[in-house]
Design goal:
The chain is mainly β. Helices cover 10% and strands 49% of the residues. It is built from 11 helices and 32 strands. The chain has an 11-stranded antiparallel beta sheet. The longest helix has 14 residues. It is elongated, with a radius of gyration of 31 Å. The N terminus is likely disordered.
């Protein structure tokens, strides 16, 4: 696109449209229409300078009907393009007192964040137009800002919102079992990013499967990308945004019901299945919008349901380090100090996951009159995970082994371990992640002055629906050989016949875990905006106040059979173990080992009582509560003159925090 065309693109701010009962210039009416529908209009000002039309509109008119009513009698036509709506001349206009003027192109000047306040419904179906619109917004924005608009969220093969965000430059994702989980930006990890919904904080769900705690790392695998109208990624600070995002602020924007031109419904369905598996995984989405006949009340409803089955084969080698710094059990005296050696277990793992995600969003708007508008939003996401993990692990203790080193890489490439410490294990878990957010906003529009009080409540719950159960079975004494070839495993062999029950000696661990994490964010405040326009100058000032309360509760409880209870269990036989449901198959390993695993639900099968009673000292040390309360205010001003734009802003925050938990006392006990 030429530099000339770049200057044509413009975006209008959101202002409720007032009816004008007198004739005005067509250029004035078009500018007013552009601001009402938040859509760029491009036209030749010289051909419209002395043309007057009746600007009065009925409330049920669409933009198509309005343009046809104004333009067709004048010999004009309009067309949709990548830069917006372009108005073309079909024949010379009959103008009143038309002096000879040089052709100029009118620009509807941007006086606000284009995507933050603009309608994006016209970019729901054409990816190229949506991408071009987002690129123009990035070009026109003050500061470093990127956006995803319309079809960029719905037409990419993205399993969740994080995968859609990968198209934004400077944004990467962290994956878990192949699916995007967290978002990284500005070279910083997920814990440094802030996720907002319509500019307000939302509670985030927490990992509850293991002891890792991620804090502010928002789980995007619980969100479908098609729920939102657009997404803004602020890479530089903005005084209007809540504090907390050192990396980037990711603002999820919902659709505004009144921006739709007519009622509609869309339903999507697709299915998938694992290779060689007959189980079908359905993905269903539905979106609908409706409005009253007088366009005073409107609503948007979106629902998404997705089921995913996944099986992952992996070789786990948790920790490697230089030989000289390894613990005594993993230090190899015969090897050079700089050799990379494992400092933890090695394992083959088969992980089966069954995930069901249901998410929905509903938003209602009531335009009481030309001045007052009420808006309510409800968002809900519910994700269930069921895991069944099988593992064959060995402990590479140096006292029982011999090793050779690859001189080119300085890393051990072969182990031979005698009397190896090995085990087979099974972990079963059912987890649930829920997020529910409600937002209420009132807007008082007094032409040049706009005031918007708001309230937001967001709660997220992460729980183990069924206790995480882990059963470890120790193998009988034997030897192990592990051999690497580049990035592949040439051999992972044990001398025992792993398909026979006699190769397993005893149950070494039976334990359960309950975890519950609750996050809550309550915010209320007021935003205001004053704007003035004079000839080719535009300036606006925004002021706001925010009161925020955040609460994070983490509770964990573990129970396990004691050593004496384990030794009293009956001897291992076919009642305790079963073959792998699926053989281990992966391209990174030459041989495909086969082993037995503990049966499902051994606790119920053998009536092993393992109740969750009073919390132990360890449980108390692993449970805590943190709360924050902050009062924030901001100021931001913008002045636009011709091709120049200046912005200045500041934000004040006073935050108080409190923590409640248990620690070890001077005598060693918990207190």
């Amino acid at each position: 696109m030429s530099p000339f065309c770049r200057n044509l693109l413009c975006f209008a701010i959101v202002l409720p449209f007032s009816c004008i009962a007198k004739e005005e210039s067509l250029g004035f009416c078009l500018n007013h229409l552009a601001k009402h529908y938040d859509l760029p209009l491009v036209y030749d000002q010289s051909k419209l300078a002395d043309v007057y039309v009746d600007c009065e509109l009925s409330t049920d008119n669409t933009i198509e009907n309005t343009l046809a009513h104004w333009l067709e009698p004048l010999g004009l036509r309009w067309r949709q393009s990548e830069v917006g709506i372009v108005i073309d001349t079909v024949e010379p206009l009959q103008r009143q007192n038309a002096p000879a003027t040089q052709a100029t192109i009118e620009e509807v000047t941007v006086v606000a964040d284009p995507v933050r306040n603009a309608s994006t419904q016209r970019f729901q179906h054409n990816y190229q137009q949506a991408a071009e619109y987002a690129r123009k917004n990035k070009h026109n924005a003050v500061g470093e800002q990127a956006s995803l608009v319309g079809a960029m969220l719905t037409q990419l093969p993205a399993e969740n919102l994080a995968e859609a965000l990968q198209v934004v430059p400077g944004v990467s994702v962290t994956r878990d079992r192949g699916e995007a989980l967290n978002v990284n930006a500005m070279g910083l990890g997920a814990e440094y990013q802030m996720v907002l919904l319509n500019g307000l904080r939302v509670a985030n769900t927490e990992n509850v499967r293991n002891s890792n705690q991620y804090g502010q790392q928002f789980r995007f695998d619980t969100l479908s990308s098609g729920l939102f109208s657009n997404v803004l990624v602020y890479k530089t600070s903005d005084a209007r945004l809540p504090l907390g995002g050192i990396g980037a602020n990711i603002d999820l924007r919902s659709a505004r019901p009144l921006e739709f031109e007519h009622s509609a419904m869309n339903i999507g369905l697709d299915v998938a299945a694992l290779e060689g598996d007959r189980n079908v995984q359905p993905n269903i989405s539905m979106s609908a919008n409706t409005m009253s006949s007088d366009r005073a009340i409107a609503g948007v409803f979106k629902v998404s349901y997705e089921n995913r089955l996944q099986r992952q084969y992996q070789f786990e080698s948790w920790h490697w380090g230089e030989n000289q710094g390894a613990a005594t059990d993993y230090h190899w005296p015969a090897l050079p100090d700089s050799t990379l050696v494992p400092t933890d277990g090695l394992a083959l793992t088969i992980e089966n996951e069954d995930r069901t995600r249901t998410s929905g969003l509903a938003e209602m708007t009531w335009q009481l009159n030309d001045t007052v508008q009420l808006n309510g939003l409800w968002f809900h996401s519910n994700t269930d995970f069921a895991f069944d993990e099988h593992r064959l692990a060995i402990n590479p203790l140096s006292a029982y082994g011999q090793a050779t080193v690859d001189e080119s890489s300085g890393q051990i490439n072969q182990f031979y371990l005698s009397n190896v410490d090995a085990k087979t294990s099974r972990e079963e878990s059912q987890l649930n992640y829920t997020n529910q957010t409600m937002q209420l906003t009132a807007t008082l529009d007094m032409k040049s002055w706009q005031v918007s009080p708001f309230f937001s409540h967001s709660a997220a719950t992460s729980i183990t629906k069924k206790p995480i159960s882990r059963v470890h079975v120790k193998l009988a004494p034997g030897n192990a050989l592990v051999e690497f070839q580049g990035n592949a495993i040439h051999r992972f062999q044990l001398s025992q016949s792993l398909g026979l029950v006699e190769s397993y000696s005893q149950i070494s661990q039976m334990r359960k875990r309950l975890t519950e994490v609750r996050n809550r964010v309550d915010e209320w405040g007021i935003d205001s905006r004053w704007q003035a326009t004079e000839q080719d100058q535009t300036w606006w000032v925004e002021l706001g106040f925010l009161h925020s309360k955040q609460r994070h509760q983490y509770q964990r409880q573990d129970v396990s059979l004691s050593a004496s209870a384990l030794s009293a269990l009956p001897s291992l036989d076919g009642r305790w173990l079963e073959p792998l449901p699926e053989a281990f198959e992966a391209k990174f390993i030459s041989n495909t080992p086969y082993w037995l695993i503990p049966k499902r639900d051994l606790f119920q099968l053998f009536d092993i009582a393992l109740p969750f009673s009073d919390k132990t000292e360890s449980d108390l040390l692993n449970s805590y509560e943190v709360s924050f309360e902050s009062i924030e205010s901001y100021f931001k001003s913008n002045w636009h003159y011709a091709e120049f734009e200046w912005q200045v802003g500041a934000r004040y925050s006073d935050t108080r925090s409190a923590a409640l938990g248990t620690r070890l006392g001077d005598g060693g006990g918990a207190r």
